[in-house]
Specification:
There is one protein chain. This protein starts with a helix and ends with a helix. The protein has 6 helices and 5 strands; from the N terminus they run αβαβαααβββα. The protein has one domain: Alpha-Beta Complex (Maf protein). The chain has helices at about 5-20, 35-40, 60-65, 70-75, 80-95, 140-160, and strands spanning about 25-30, 50-55, 100-105, 120-125, 130-135. Helix 1 (about 5-20) crosses helix 2 (about 35-40) and helix 1 (about 5-20) packs parallel to helix 6. By secondary structure, it is α/β, with parallel strands linked by helices.
């Protein structure tokens, strides 16, 4: 079972989406499906959550989520541009009203000077456009993944007006 904070946010998102008739899709990288797991832990999730992609590899970001190869090459997988492209791509491909995405460096390794461990981008796309948030977590791998998943759900709740 996911963290209680994730469950509370997932429950809140579900209630708002059901009340407003909105559907949701996810595209996850560094969280490895934690957001989707939280959403589907709430009974009735199939009424609004259409599904998601775990696009850990760049090739899957490109081939499944529709991130243009030139965006990946120019900005790298951990970037605002890729987070937005992931959200827009999964929204278009799955046909959801709202789509969220997350890409980052969970750690403990894999970071660089310009993209340190803990750097995470959370994206969202809906009929009103797209947005992205940048975070820099300072915990271990598990806490960075949890903080990223919480940020995804918080952004979704903010966007749907819960």
């Amino acid at each position: 079972m996911p963290d209680d904070r994730l469950i509370a946010l997932a429950d809140r998102l579900q209630a708002t989406c059901l009340a407003r008739g909105l559907t949701v899709a996810t595209a996850e990288s560094c969280t490895g499906g934690l957001v989707g797991h939280a959403l589907t832990s709430i009974p009735g999730a199939s009424s609004y959550y259409l599904g998601g992609l775990i696009t850990y590899a760049d090739a899957l970001k490109r081939d499944l989520a529709g991130v243009p190869a030139e965006v990946l090459e120019t900005h790298g997988a951990v970037s605002a541009q890729v987070a937005i492209a992931m959200a827009e791509g999964v929204r278009d491909r799955i046909g959801a009203d709202v789509a969220v995405s997350v890409t980052g460096v969970a750690g403990p390794d894999g970071g660089t000077g310009s993209k340190p461990v803990g750097l995470t981008y959370v994206g969202i796309a809906d009929g009103h456009g797209s947005d992205v948030r940048r975070y820099r977590w300072v915990g271990d791998r598990a806490s960075n993944q949890l903080d990223s998943a919480l940020a995804v759900l918080e952004l979704a709740i903010e966007r749907v007006g819960a």
